[in-house]
Amino acid sequence: MNTLLVPLVTGAEVTFWVVAPITILGALGLVLSRRAVYAALSVAVTMIGLAALYASLDAPFLAMVQIIVYTGAVLMMFLFVLMMVGIITPDSTVETLKGQRPLAILGGIGILAFLFFAIGGALHTEPATVAAANSEFGGNVEGLANLLFGRYVFVFELSAALLIVAAVGAMLLAHGQRVRPRKGQPELAADRMYAYKTKGEHPGSLPNSGVYAGSNAIGVGALLPDGTVSEKSISQTLVMRGATIDPAPLTQVTGSTFAAIEAVRDEDEED
What we know:
mainly alpha, Four Helix Bundle (Hemerythrin (Met), subunit A), 68% helix
């Protein structure tokens, strides 16, 4: 009687074969995306996939750190900066650092070589599982604490110092000396008057909509003291959309008042 042997497949293996392709697709999206926002979202997919792999290997602490710290904090900060600053496609294609492409190609070749030797060594040696490491120290968190603050404490502190130096260096590079002295209120007022003299720009604030008119609606033009409508008081967007109100009925009161004043003035001159 022939017995069909079915190989035992664990949950970690199933998770790997499901999540690993998605993680690789996210990494490819990071490299191939032309938009910075799409590239950042691809990184989020990759990080979440790595967190799922950590969880399947009995490393829940690493999985939570991967999601909370990297995906939830660092990557979301990058996304917020991209959305607030705004980066268009032509800006991303401009090479700001000369010679960065050859260096990037060399770095990619070095990473591929490292992965080749690392995978080859893992295939020919007995892998050290996470379960064995957890059993040695009594848990995942305890094992990480023993490695970080015990065996690799010097490397850990050195990495922390490098991060502090990087943060301080970024602050120093972002801080620039003021080229021109800061203008105060008198200088700003003088500039406004100079612009009014040379370019005809209004030195003060523009008239609000509805001033001296019978309505304060935003689509009603402001009436000047002589009864004319100030075109600067209406937004050009409303003018393009045709959402303005005809000011002719509003100017009738002013027109009749001016007519009465002129009539009285003419009578006085005749007398």
